[in-house]
Structures are given as structure tokens and as C-alpha cells.
Amino acid sequence: MTATLTRGAERIHAAFDRAKEEGRAAFMPFMTAGYPSAEEFPAVVDTLLAHADLLEVGIPYSDPLGDGPTVQRASEQALAGGTSTRRTLALVKDLRERHDTPIVVMTYVNPIYAVGPREFMRLCKDAGVDGLILPDLPPDQDLEIADLAAEHGLAVTFLIAPTSTPGRVRLVADACTGFLYAVSVTGVTGAREGSALGEVPAMLALAREHARVPVAVGFGVKDAATAHQVARVADGVVVGSAFINAVREGQDVGTLAASIAEGCRR
């Protein structure tokens, strides 16, 4: 599959470039669409966007195999509240009307096919989505989705993990047009105790031999200290479960976001 540069990719790359010029790794918070409710979601994300270089919005899904208990529970709550794939993209469209920050949507393949790939891409384009993160789509098995995304101006991002072979890293790096998402640990999403780095430095060294896009790291980043560990070696830092936990526990999401954003300075 040949990687195609799109308008969404250009906006994503520009956000990473701005952060680099300022001596930072780009900060990308994640939030499940419709969490804690469709009515409260916009205010939560507005708070995150005050500190973000990019935003990742997750489409709630009933079988999120790559997500840990925190994101799974958030998806269940959002689905119970009526947040569908179409509702997610309506929420993103509302955000786009108020913010110019690049927005990437994380989705498993089934929600795309449930809507229909071409219709899904049209809805993403109309909503102002810049890119897609596709955690369960191997790029060598993609027959349609990446090409349709490019046709609609959307970048695509695939994932590598510490267990990825050099051949797999090369394949994924070649297919990414937005950024390359490096998973810091083997397993599912969620804040963890201890270092966030794990096998990240060696994995990133291999990824950068092939990647023509920025490399961001997620899974296990929970605070300023772990964000700083990752920021020293990566182009971007993705944080999700820590914010979902903060919302659930009634903590100040803005204070946490500001602290983690500061931790992204090198």
C-alpha cells in the first residue's frame, strides 16, 4: 500500500513540527466520545484542548480488544447513553466549529463497516476529522479503508508494539501518513505503575529507520513524570486512561492536562 499525503496529514505534521520548534513532544490527550455523557463531553474536551497539540477521540465500541478496563467502561457508558458512530462524528463536528486543533478519531474496523466505509469517510470529512487511528487493521490486509481515507483527505495511523518484528515495523511505518503510534508495552491501554518507557527507546530507534512521519507513544502515560520520560525519546505523547479516571473521580481535568503538557517539555 502506498502512503498518500493528505490535507489532514499536513495539519497533523504541522502540529508536531510546532511542538518540536518549542522544545516539546506534541501532547495528544484522548477521550472516549460521549463520556461521561454526550452533554458533558464537549466541556471536558474543551478543557483538554486548552493544553493539547492534537486531540484523539475514541468511537465507543462494544468489543475494544486493545483497550483496558478504564476505556472499556467509558465505552460502555457512552454506548448506554446513546453515543453511536454517527453521534461521535456529530460531536467532533461541533468541536471543529470551536477549535482548530487537529483531531484524529480512533476506531476499530467494525464500526467503519457498520456504517459503510465510503459513508464513514464522508462523515469524517464533513465533521472536520484530520486522521484515523486504526488499532485492529493490519495495513497489509487493508483492501479499501486507507485508500478511501486518502480520497477524503484523511491521514491514517497504524500501531506497532514491543513485540513487532523489524519487518512488521517497516510495513507499518510505510503505511502511516499521519503519525506512527508506538505502544509502550505489550498489552492494553491503561495507566501503569513504574516507568512508561519499557522497551520504547529500542522500538523507536527501529521505527525511525523507516518512518517518514512523526512517532508518538501511548499506553501507560499517566502524569507529568511519565510524560517527560516519553517526551525525551518520542515526537508525541498520547494520554487517555488518566483523563477518563480523572473525569470518573471528579478531579480537575484541566489541572492534570496542564501538568502533563508541561511534562512533555524536554
Write a concise synopsis of the structure shown.
By secondary structure, the protein is of the alpha/beta class. Helices cover 45% and strands 13% of the residues. It has a single domain (7-263), classed as Aldolase class I (TIM Barrel).
Shape: globular
CATH class: Alpha Beta
Described by strand count, sense and barrel closure, the largest sheet is:
9 strands, parallel
Beginning-to-end CA distance, first to last residue: 35 Å
Q: What is the helix fraction of residues, given as a range?
A: 40-55%
CATH topology: TIM Barrel
CATH second-level architecture: Alpha-Beta Barrel
Determine the strand fraction and express it as a percent band: 5-15%
How many structural domains in the coordinates? 1
**Number of E-type strands:** 9
SSE order: HEHEHHEHHEHEEHEHEHEHH
Uncertain runs with pLDDT below 50, 5 residues or more?
187-195
Q: Cα-atom Rg, whole angstroms?
A: 17 Å
Mean pLDDT: 92
Function: The alpha subunit is responsible for the aldol cleavage of indoleglycerol phosphate to indole and glyceraldehyde 3-phosphate.
EC number: 4.2.1.20
Pfam families: Trp_syntA
Pathway: Amino-acid biosynthesis; L-tryptophan biosynthesis; L-tryptophan from chorismate: step 5/5
